[in-house]
Amino acid sequence: MSQYGLRIPDPKNKKRVVVVGGGFGGMNLLKYLDEKVYQVVLFDRNNFHTFVPLLYQVATAGIEPDSIVDPLRNLLRKRVDTHFRMMKVLQVRPEAQEIDTAIGSLHYDYLIIATGTDANFYGNKNIESKALKLQTLQDSLNMRSRILQNFEMATLSNDHAERDRLTNFIIVGGGPTGVELAGTMAELREYVLPRDYPELDFGIMSIYLVHSRDYLLPYMPEKAGQQAAKFLREMGVEIILNTKVTDYDGHIATLDDGRTLDGECLIWCAGVQGLTIPGFPEESTERRNYLVDEFNQVQGVEHVFAIGDIALQKTEAYPDGHPGVAQTAIQQGKQLANNLMRLSRQQEMKPFHYTNRGTIATVGRNKAVANFLGKIRSGGWFAWFAWWVVHIYYLVGFRNKLGTLSNWILNYFSFRHSSRLIVRPFVRREDSEEQELFAKNIGA
Ligand SMILES: Cc1cc2nc3c(=O)[nH]c(=O)nc-3n(C[C@H](O)[C@H](O)[C@H](O)COP(=O)(O)OP(=O)(O)OC[C@H]3O[C@@H](n4cnc5c(N)ncnc54)[C@H](O)[C@@H]3O)c2cc1C
Predict the structure, then answer these.
(1) For position 434, what pLDDT does the model report?
(2) Predicted local distance difference test score (pLDDT) of residue 397
(3) Would the CB of 333 count as within 6 Å of ligand 1?
(4) Which residues contact 159 (CB under 8 A, 6 or more apart)?
(5) Nearest-5° angle of CA 137, CA 139, CA 145?
(6) N or C: which end of the chain has fewer CB within 10 A?
(7) For the chain, what is the domain count?
């Protein structure tokens, strides 16, 4: 018998709610779920909650990683019958009402799946093995290392073509993440990197943003995308529209019109797919998401709910599901907690209605485009400032709010991006040539 087990106490006369995922959906559900009524067990593969919208700031060395995460045990410390286990949930057995982990199974009365998404490479293994993605804190630290390593390597190279490749960046996908990254990279090129690397010629550094549609920010009206493109072009970003990247060998990206782009760093922001857990009947999922009804109940199984990015809830107003943004997860988490409380009182559940609070995308240091109630506003520092205030407001803990705010103010006024550190050099898994190079050259 194994010496390890989940070691969850008996819920006694209470029902047990098992929550998988301590992201926006899971943590907002917990906030409104009364543990006097339910025993709660939270599983997450990490021991921290991540404020995902600011990952790009960590990746580009603008903010310390600690500022955008909070340990889950810290967030749960005042709760007495909520039990956190840092474990990946591997499978669900809905007929037995049990989940399986590597070290044991657990019975649930209600199961809530809030596992979010990962990058979708649409089956392209070459791109998947050579590109960088930005979904987790680990990804953002890999990207930060990789960007800085490339500049360190460029200073060491005698070959002009290699120096060019090492300082070029190919960003794929013109959604908010691609747009934010492209803008921030352009600012690093303008204000920060030339001071750090005086031996390099930044005239050769290109930032490409490749997007498959005819305007950026496809989830916003066309005018917003055009404004974002205008801002980026003014900052020197080369925008390639109506084009897909079809291959990448780690040095050269191939486009679907036959053109190629040279770059040792390709960042993939072109799509996501749900992190579903095996064990559900076919009718429960569509496009790697759980199909849910108006109460967020997963179709085809009982006592199982899904919220946030992983849930596909088709309504008249949103026939393709709600937008994959933090607000959807936050609102669904709160609504489901209220519904579980209603169930405990033998009351009927209430259907979910999404409230659109508007969307803002930043383009660098003081430019942003916003869509409030269908009205597009684009502008300088005010829209950008609003974006930051909203994001800092939603950062989980007080410590993070304070840390992020002070980091940000310091950077804004001084351009002194303080976290340009290669703490753990990043080497692409399948690239042994590269591993050797970094192991030899940079204390890996
Ligand atoms: C780079 C980036 C930028 C974004 N910017 C914005 C923005 O500016 N504004 C906005 O509103 N939205 C933004 N989004 C979208 C937003 O982050 C998501 O909509 C939101 O995080 C969804 O919340 P969630 O609770 O569904 O999932 P998440 O917040 O992703 O949480 C999922 C949790 O589940 C855990 N998990 C996954 N699988 C398992 C498993 N098998 N077992 C245990 N734990 C598991 C994960 O570790 C994670 O903690 C951005 C997304 C990305 C990737």
Answers:
(1) 61
(2) 66
(3) no
(4) none
(5) 105
(6) N
(7) 1
Token pair recorded at residue 299: 């179709």
The answer to whether position 97 is within a domain reads: no
Burial 379-395 (b: 16+ CB within 10 A, else e): eeeebbebbbeebbeeb
Q: Which range marks the domain in which residue 241 is found?
A: 125-270+366-436
What is the band of 355 on the pLDDT scale with cuts at 50, 70, 90?
A: very high
Report the distance separating Cα 200 and Cα 187, nearest Å.
16
Residue found under tokens 């749960």:
76
Which of 48, 52, 269, 322 for mutating ligand 1's site (highest number of atoms within 8 Å of CB)?
Answer: 52
The answer on pLDDT for 279 being more than 70 is: yes
User: What pLDDT is attached to residue 146?
Assistant: 95
- Residue 350 is assigned to a structural domain of this protein: no
- CATH number of the domain that 182 lies in? 3.50.50.100
- Structure token digits, residue 432: 């042994």
**Other Cβ atoms closer than 10 A to 179:** 30
pLDDT at 272 over 60: yes
Amino acid at site 183: G
User: Which pLDDT score is estimated for 140?
Assistant: 97
The answer to whether residue 178 sits within a structural domain is yes
What pLDDT sits at residue 30?
A: 97
> Lowest-confidence range among 172-181, 299-308, 340-349, 363-372?
363-372
| Centre of ligand 1 from the C-alpha of residue 41, in Å | 19
The residues near 319 (Cβ < 8 Å, ≥ 6 apart) are none
The pLDDT of residue 358: 82
Q: Is the CB of 274 under 6 A from ligand 1?
A: no
Helix axes 326-344, 24-32, angle to 10 degrees: 30
Q: How far is the CA of 116 from the centre of ligand 1 (A)?
A: 5
67 DSSP assignment: G
Structure tokens at 327: 């607000």
What DSSP string runs through 339-408? HHHHHHTTPPP---------EEEE-SSS-EEEEETTEEEEESHHHHHHHHHHHHHHSSSHHHHHHHHHHH
Please give the DSSP secondary-structure letter assigned to residue 122: T
Counting ligand 1 atoms within 8 A of each CB, the residue from 115, 118, 120 with the most, and so the one to mutate, is 115
Tell me if 315 is assigned to some domain.
Answer: no
- Over the chain, what is the mean pLDDT? 91
Is pLDDT larger for residue 360 or for residue 28?
28
Ligand 1 atom 42: residue of nearest CA: 88
Please count the CA atoms within 13 angstroms of the CA of 380 that sit on its side-chain side.
0
